[in-house]
Amino acid sequence: MGRPVRLDFEGGWHHVMNRGAGRQAVFLTRGDGIRFERLLAEGCELNGIEVHAYCLMSNHFHLLVRCPDRGLSEFMQRVGALYTRGLNARVGRDGPLFRSRFRSIVVDTPEYLARVGRYIHRNPLVVPSARSLADYRWSSYRCYVGRAPRPAWLRTDTLLDMHQGGRRGYADFVEGQVTQRPIRTDVLEPVIDMLIDECDPDEIGERRGLIRVVTIAMLQRTEGEARASLDALLEFASSGARRTALHRARSRLAETPVLHRVVQRALDLAA
Description:
alpha+beta; Alpha-Beta Plaits; 2 domains; 4-stranded antiparallel sheet; 12 helices; globular
């Protein structure tokens, strides 16, 4: 099966993620993070891309970008190639740093745009040393809440304008609880697959059938319209089949505790 066609159109919004090949660390020093930010800045100018949110983790990164004149692939290829070349030269190694192709999911509604920004800015919650989201150096969130100056290449106006109260209102949205909404079933599979990619493969184990397991586990944590949309997506043949599937999902989550985090993140991003 060939690669799916990447959607790139004028004015398009995209949630972009890439990770290290073999889940290796890609940001080794403070200088690495600074250099990646510099490449984002250069790419914004050269490719006409807008970066609205970002977060750099040890072995992967997330971006929320808008492409007024398309150019997403050119932007990401340049950033990835130059960053890899520089890091390889510094540490004296050769070969790919990132996996061959970045992931991108089209962000097509204001509600989903807000959720993606929130998700990206909440990524550091899994970092034990992160005292607070606003203190995490490698995220645009600190610029949103006034903890650091906003660089010229980072756009914060769109997400801030979606919430009353300016910075305080946005901080409440990112750091507080949100009301569960209908599941975006059209993006659920790529979202879950992306979230699984963030995990240590030794913790995940066998990936076959895992997207369905996470979807079924989400069903157990939802109600109302959200639960109905997941039921329709899963298409259980009977009530007995539904009970069996729920039991198997609970068993897999008990065997693989990291999946609890994947389930919750999927709800945060797609619900």
